[in-house]
Amino acid sequence: MIARRLQRIFPDNKTLIVACDHGMIEGPAPGIEVIGDTLKAVVAGGADAVMCSYGTAVRFAELLAHTALVLRMDGAGTRIGPRTGPGAQFYTVEDALRLGADALCVTAFPGSPHEEATLETLARVIRQAHQWDMPVMAEMVPGGFDSLPEKRTLDAIQVAARVAAELGADWVKVPYVDVFREVTRTCYVPVVVLGGERRDDPRQTLSMVQAGLAAGASGAVIGRNVWQSGRTEAMTRALSALIHSDITTQQAWEIFQQ
C-alpha cells in the first residue's frame, strides 16, 4: 500500500509537490489569500501533489481529488504569536486516512534547541503512519525556519537528511546547498529540494531545482516561489516540465513566460 501511494506522488520516481500549508502560521499570506483560486491554478499547472492543512483538505476535497494529497500533521504558533516552542502533532493518522491523504508531512529542527522534541514527534508519526501503510515526508530544517545561513551547511543538511531516513521517513525535504550530491549520496531515501523564501526572479528557483535534480534530487517541494511568482499556474507548469521532462532551465523559463 505504501508503494501504491508513493507511486501517485512520484509517478516516474520524481515529484513536484506544491506546498500550500503556510496559512497555518501566516494566515492569508499574499498568493494564498483565496486558497481555492491558488489550488485551481496549481492543479491546472500539473503538480503531482499538494501539501496542505487539514482545513484546506476538508473544504477543497473535490478540487484536491485531481492530485495527490500530502497532509500537514504538525503545527506551531502563528506569526502574531511568540513562536518559541517546538510545535506539536496536531492530527492523527486516522484523520489523514479519513480525508483520503496519500502521505503525511512532519517538520523537525535538528541543530536547534527543539531538536529532540521535534525528532520525537517525527518518529512517533512515522511509527503510527506505517501501521497503516501511510508514507511520511520529513521536512528537515537545520536550526529551524528562522536560523542563520551558517546553520544550513552541507554537513548539517547531510546529518538532517540521514537522521530522517534513520527514523524511517519515506522521503526527505531539505534546503538546497552547494555540493548537494553529497546529501543525496549519503541519504538512502529520496531527497527533494525545499523551496524556501521567496525569490524576486523566478529563474533563480528554476535554476536551484535544476541543480538539485542534476545532483540526484527526486524533485522539489515549492510553496512561495510558486504562488508568489505572479503566475501560479505557469510556474507550476514550468517546474513540472523541468522535473519530469529533462529540459533546461532556459526551456523552463520559456514555459513560465508563455
Structure description:
It is globular and about 45 Å long. It has one domain: TIM Barrel, CATH 3.20.20. The strands form two sheets. An eight-stranded parallel β-barrel has the order 1-2-3-6-7-8-9-10, surrounded by six helices. It has 258 residues and is α/β, with parallel strands linked by helices. 45% of the residues lie in helices and 16% in strands. The longest helix has 16 residues, at 115-130. The mean pLDDT is 96. It has 13 helices and ten strands. The protein has helices at residues 2-9, 23-26, 35-45, 54-59, 61-64, 93-99, 115-130, 154-167, 181-186, 202-214, 224-227, 232-244, 249-257, and strands spanning 15-19, 49-52, 68-72, 74-75, 88-89, 103-108, 136-140, 171-175, 191-194, 219-222. Helix 3 runs parallel beside helix 12 (232-244), helix 10 (202-214) runs antiparallel to helix 13 and helix 12 (232-244) packs antiparallel against helix 13 (249-257). The N and C termini lie far apart (39 Å). Strand 7, helix 8 (154-167) and strand 8 form a beta-alpha-beta unit.
